[in-house]
Specification:
- The chain has helices spanning about 15-20, 45-50, 55-60, 65-70, 85-105, and strands at about 25, 35-40, 75-80.
- Strands 1-2-3 form a 3-stranded antiparallel sheet.
- It has one domain (about 20-105).
- It is built from 5 helices and 3 strands.
- The chain starts with 14 loop residues before the first helix and ends in a 6-residue tail after the last helix.
- Helix 1 packs across helix 5.
- The longest helix is centred in the C-terminal third of the chain and has 20 residues, at about 85-105.
- It is α+β, with helices and mostly antiparallel strands and about 110 residues long.
Length: about 110
C-alpha cells in the first residue's frame, strides 16, 4: 500500500560535495594541510600511495600504521594532501579493489 514505507533513493554526492564534507586539518608531524576521510575495508597503504602518486615515506608520515589499524578495526582516518583529494575520490573504488586483490593473490600486480 502506498504511504507505508518503502525503499528510499538518494542522489549520489558529487566529488565537490564529498570534498566539502571532509574536514580540513593540519598534520602535526608534517605541518601539511590535509583533508580527513574515514575509510573502511581492506585498503592497502602501498596501493593507496601508488594511486595518489605519493612516495611511500611521505604517505606513511601522514598515515602511520594504516595497514595494521585497518586490519584490527573497521575504520581509519585517512589524511589526504589537499592536492590529492580529487584523485582519491575518483580512484577510491579501484584502490579498494586492487587492495583486496593483493590480499587474495600476493602475486597480483596493480
Amino acid at each position: 500500500m502506498e504511504g507505508e514505507g518503502g525503499v528510499a533513493t538518494a542522489t549520489p554526492l558529487t566529488k565537490e560535495q564529498e570534498m566539502e564534507m571532509m574536514p580540513t586539518a593540519t598534520d602535526e608531524l608534517t605541518h601539511q594541510n590535509v583533508k580527513l576521510h574515514t575509510i573502511s575495508g581492506r585498503y592497502n597503504s602501498k596501493t593507496v600511495a601508488k594511486y595518489l602518486e605519493m612516495d611511500m615515506a611521505e604517505f606513511n608520515k601522514l598515515n602511520p600504521n594504516m595497514d595494521r589499524i585497518l586490519a584490527a578495526s573497521s575504520t581509519y582516518q585517512l589524511k589526504i594532501p589537499l592536492n590529492k583529494v580529487e584523485l582519491f575520490l575518483s580512484k577510491k573504488n579501484q584502490m579498494l579493489n586492487d587492495s583486496i586483490m593483493m590480499i587474495l593473490n600476493p602475486d597480483y600486480q596493480n
